[in-house]
Automatic annotation (TrEMBL):
Cellular component GO terms held in the UniProt record: axon; dendrite; plasma membrane
Organism: Sander lucioperca (Pike-perch)
Gene3D superfamilies: Immunoglobulins
Residue span of region Disordered: 540-563
Keyword match Transmembrane helix: yes
Name of a matching Pfam family: Ig_2
Record-given protein name: Activated leukocyte cell adhesion molecule a
UniProt KW keywords: Adaptive immunity, Cell adhesion, Cell membrane, Cell projection, Disulfide bond, Glycoprotein, Immunity, Immunoglobulin domain, Membrane, Repeat, Signal, Transmembrane, Transmembrane helix
Biased composition (Basic and acidic residues): 542-563
Amino acid sequence: MDSAAFLLLAFVNAVTLLQVWGTDNVTALYGEVIVIPCNGGAPAPADLMFVKWKYEKDDGTRGDLLIKQVSSVQATVQATDQYAQRVSIDANFSLLISQATLKDQKTFTCMVVSGSNLIEYPVSVLVYKIPSSVQIMDKSKVLQKDKPTMVGTCVAANANPATTFTWKKNGKPLLADGKAVVISSSIKLDPATGLSTTSSTLQYAASKEDFAAVFVCVSTHKLTNQEEELGPFPIYYPSEKVSLEIMSKGPIVEGDNVTLKCHADGNPPPSSFFFHIKGQKMPVVNSDNYTLTNISREAGGEYKCSLADNEKMEASQSIAVSYLDLSLTSSGKVVKALGDTFHVTIEKNASGDPEVSWTKNGKAMEGVKKLQFSKLTYADAGVYVCEVSMTSLTRRQSFELVVEGKPMITSLTKDRADDADSKVLTCEAEGVPEPNFQWSVNSTGVKSSHTNSKVTHKITVTPSVNLTVTCRVSNKLGEDTMTINVSSVFKEKTDKRDSQEDSEDQAKLIVGVVVGLLVAAAIVGLIYWLYMKNSRQGSWKTGEKELGTSEESTKLEDNNHAV
Ligand SMILES: *[C@@H]1O[C@H](CO)[C@@H](O)[C@H](O)[C@H]1NC(C)=O
Ligand SMILES: *[C@@H]1O[C@H](CO)[C@@H](O)[C@H](O)[C@H]1NC(C)=O
Ligand SMILES: *[C@@H]1O[C@H](CO)[C@@H](O)[C@H](O)[C@H]1NC(C)=O
Ligand SMILES: *[C@@H]1O[C@H](CO)[C@@H](O)[C@H](O)[C@H]1NC(C)=O
Ligand SMILES: *[C@@H]1O[C@H](CO)[C@@H](O)[C@H](O)[C@H]1NC(C)=O
Ligand SMILES: *[C@@H]1O[C@H](CO)[C@@H](O)[C@H](O)[C@H]1NC(C)=O
Ligand SMILES: *[C@@H]1O[C@H](CO)[C@@H](O)[C@H](O)[C@H]1NC(C)=O
Ligand SMILES: *[C@@H]1O[C@H](CO)[C@@H](O)[C@H](O)[C@H]1NC(C)=O
Ligand SMILES: *[C@@H]1O[C@H](CO)[C@@H](O)[C@H](O)[C@H]1NC(C)=O
C-alpha cells in the first residue's frame, strides 16, 4: 500500500506542476500539542488523492512524517526519529505534534496531492513559553544617599522568547545613565531545553527625598507582562551637622546635674559619641548624652561633642555655673549687753550681683541693707534672717540676738482687791534674763510671762498693821528693789517711783487740817452765835456732813479691819 502510494506520487510528480505556497506561521505553547494546519485549514481539493507532512531537518535534508490517503482511514507514520511517537493528523489534515519543545521550531510542509496538482504549504512553527516565575532576589534593606546601591534583582526563569525587563520608580520609567541609575541584565540559556532565564539588577543612588520611593521591575514577554514591587527603603546618609544641647530648665547652678546631649542629622542616627569634658575625651556608646553630676563652679567653660566615627564632626557649647555663698559674722545665739554696739557683716561670694534683705522675727526690715546698732536696747532682741538671692539661687543665714541687762523695777503699785479685804501689790520690772521676784511679805504671787524683757509679779496682802513692803528683783547681772507703804487704813493711791511722797499720809494730813479748821470754825461760830443769838448759817450743816462722812469711812475701815 505504501509502496503503491510512492509509486503514485512519483507518477504525479512527473506529470503535474509542483506549486509551493508562501510560508505560514504557527505559534504553539511549550509542552502542549502543536496544531499545524494544512493550507491554513482550507478545504481540500475535490480530486485529492493524499496529503503528506514532512519537515526540514537541521542539516537541510528532508524528514518524512506521515502520509494520509483519502481512501484509507488511518494515516501512515513514516517518521522513524523522535517524531514517530508524537505526530498525528486530524480530519482537516492538520499535523498534530504532542509535547512541544523548542526543537519543534522548524518549518513543516504539508504536501497536497490531487489528480491535477501537487501543492506544498510550508508552515513555520514557533514555540513560546511564559516564564515559570518572575521573582525579586537580593533585595536591599536600605539605600545609600548619592551612592549607587543595589535595589534588587528581578529574575524571570525559563521563558521563550527571553523576557525583557524595564524599571520604574514611582510609576516613571528609570533610564540607565551609568551614574545614578545602573541597570545590568543577563540572559542564561538552558542548554537542555533552550529556555532563557533573564535577570536584571538595578543600582540606584538615592536622595533624601527617595525615602518613600517605590521601585517596580516590569517583565515583558510575548504572552505576559508582570510587575514586581520593591521598597520603600530607608535612606542612609552620613551626618552633615552636629549640635550640642545643654539640657537645663533654667540657669545652671552649682550642685546641679547637667546633661549634655549630642545631636547629629545622619541616618541612621549615630549611636556613639565623644564628649570632651575639661580636656578629657569621654566615649559614650549606645547613647547620645553625658551627665555631669554635682557640677562645681570651676566646671564652667567650653564643652564639645563629636561623632565617634568621624571626630571632625563636632559641636561645642559653653556652660556658666551660677553660685552663691553666704556667711554672716554672727550665727546661732548672740548674747549682747544692753547699750552695747553691735554690727553684722555679710560675706558673700557669687557669680553675679545678689540682692540682700533682712527680716526680724519674720517681718521684713524694709530698706535695711546693713545691720548695725550703736546702742542696743531690749527691743533690738530677736531672730534675724539675712536672705541673699540671685536668679534662681537663694541663701539664708540667721542668728538670734539676745540683749541682756540688769533688772530694774519700773513700777510698784497697790490696788484694792476685788473682795475689798485685801490689797494687790504689783511689781513691774524690766531685765534679761528674766528676773526673779522676792517680796518682804509672805504671799502667793502670780507672775506674768516675760515678754519684751518686761515681767510683772502680783501679790495679794491683807495687812492688819501698817506695812512697808519691798519688791526685790534679781538676775545674774544684778538686782533692784523698791518699797511701798501699805496702811491698814483702807486707802488707795498709786506709788510711782518718780513721786517719793506718801500720798496716803498726805491725804490724812489734809483730813486732819480740815477737821481742825472745822472745829475752829465751830468754836468761832459758837462765839458768833452767843453774840448774835438770832441767825444760823447752812454752811454749818455742810461742814457737819463732810465731817460725818469722813468719820463714817474711818469707822467703816476700822470695822472691816476688826472683822
Ligand atoms: C512568518 O514569520 C516570519 C518570521 O518569523 C515572517 O517573516 C513572515 O512574514 C511570517 N509570515 C506570515 C504569513 O505571517
Ligand atoms: C476542520 O475545519 C473546520 C472548519 O475549518 C472546523 O470547523 C473543524 O473543527 C475542523 N476539524 C478538526 C478535527 O480540527
Ligand atoms: C544628681 O545625680 C545623682 C546621681 O546620679 C543623684 O543622686 C542626685 O539626686 C542628682 N541631683 C539632682 C539635683 O538631681
Ligand atoms: C541618655 O541616653 C540614655 C541611653 O540612650 C537614654 O536612656 C536617656 O533617656 C538619655 N537621656 C536623655 C536626657 O536624653
Ligand atoms: C557636690 O560636690 C561638693 C564639692 O564640690 C561636695 O561637697 C558635695 O558633697 C557634693 N554633693 C553630692 C551630693 O555629691
Ligand atoms: C569667697 O571666696 C574666697 C576665695 O575663693 C574665700 O577665701 C572666701 O572664704 C569665700 N567666702 C565665702 C563666704 O565663701
Ligand atoms: C513666811 O512663811 C513661812 C512659812 O510659810 C515662815 O516660815 C516664814 O517665817 C514667814 N516669813 C515671814 C516674813 O513672815
Ligand atoms: C497707820 O498709819 C496712819 C497714818 O499714816 C496712822 O494714823 C495709823 O494710826 C496707823 N495705824 C497703825 C495700826 O499703826
Ligand atoms: C513709809 O513710812 C515710813 C514711816 O512709817 C517713812 O519713814 C517712809 O519714808 C515711808 N516710805 C515711803 C516710800 O513713803
